[in-house]
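Narrative of accomplishments. A recurring question from our advisory board has been how the design workflow behaves on a single, concrete structure rather than in aggregate. To address it, we present the structure tokens for one chain from the evaluation set, followed by the sequence designed for it. No filtering or post-editing was applied between the two.
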């Protein structure tokens, strides 16, 4: 698992690849509002956009059909369910897509379904060339190259530590956590960032989304987004991965890394290089610890 995490992270977008032309619509779970659906549809080209839905995070056999109906209710006309059992057909569908949408469930289940390098590569390339890629809950967690896949095994010292695993690598500079405020996951994300301080933690609450365009993202929805940044303290240098036979986890007693924590409300923007794009009166670092 450790080598696989390193390999997939290396395959994510690098500085020489240029900024992707597409957008990411990442929802922290809970209700996907019609406003969010319409924003994703608009970014993808409107009701005539070709949509590929990816229901595989769910164990509900009707998940695909329900996703199709949901997008039809939002006005979309051309929607197909990704067939991961036919790699050639899946790649062809992705290459034609304007919007690729992933539902919630288990991010581990989703990544297992999308384990074909051809399928993952096609999603990355289509995003690079201009498609919108979105998802909620588990579909949010897989956006980063290193994702939080739950906790370590029960009954071990890692039981309360976030377990790290390979994601899709569409947003490689961050670690996404979802259901953030509702499930009180700030300590989990801090531990993950301390384990990988070259990455920025982005915690997205339910019924809340970030719209990613290049190096910048905008917040929309009913709750807040928390950004946890330890890059200044780490000087951008990745920390050596803790080793475990069960796969990588944030270490049981992570070293102290100074973390700047920001809280963003709807309508605010954050730039991964510049920080908050807003007047100081509207937002500031809420804590440094």
């Amino acid at each position: 698992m450790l080598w696989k995490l390193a390999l997939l992270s290396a395959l994510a977008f690098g500085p020489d690849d240029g900024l992707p032309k597409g957008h990411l619509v990442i929802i922290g779970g809970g209700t996907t509002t019609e406003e969010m659906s319409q924003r994703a549809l608009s970014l993808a080209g409107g009701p005539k956009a070709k949509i590929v839905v990816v229901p595989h995070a769910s164990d509900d056999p009707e998940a695909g059909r329900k996703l199709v109906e949901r997008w039809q209710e939002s006005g979309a006309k051309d929607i197909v369910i990704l067939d991961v059992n036919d790699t050639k057909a899946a790649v062809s569908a992705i290459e034609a897509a304007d919007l690729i949408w992933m539902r919630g469930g288990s991010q581990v289940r989703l990544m297992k379904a999308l384990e074909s390098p051809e399928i993952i590569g096609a999603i990355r390339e289509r995003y690079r060339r201009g498609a919108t890629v979105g998802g909620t809950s588990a579909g949010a967690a897989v956006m980063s190259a290193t994702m939080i896949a739950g906790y370590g095994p029960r009954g071990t010292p890692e039981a309360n530590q976030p377990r790290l695993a390979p994601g899709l690598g569409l947003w490689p500079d961050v670690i996404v956590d979802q259901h953030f405020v509702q499930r009180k996951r700030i300590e989990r994300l801090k531990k993950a960032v301390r384990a990988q301080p070259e990455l920025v933690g982005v915690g997205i609450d339910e019924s809340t989304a970030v719209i990613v365009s290049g190096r910048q993202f905008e917040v929309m929805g009913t709750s807040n987004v928390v950004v946890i940044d330890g890059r200044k303290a780490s000087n951008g240098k990745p920390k050596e991965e803790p080793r475990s036979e069960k796969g990588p986890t944030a270490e049981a007693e992570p070293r102290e890394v100074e973390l700047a924590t920001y809280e963003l409300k709807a309508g605010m923007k954050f730039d991964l290089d510049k920080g908050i794009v807003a007047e100081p009166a509207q937002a500031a670092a809420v804590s440094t610890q």
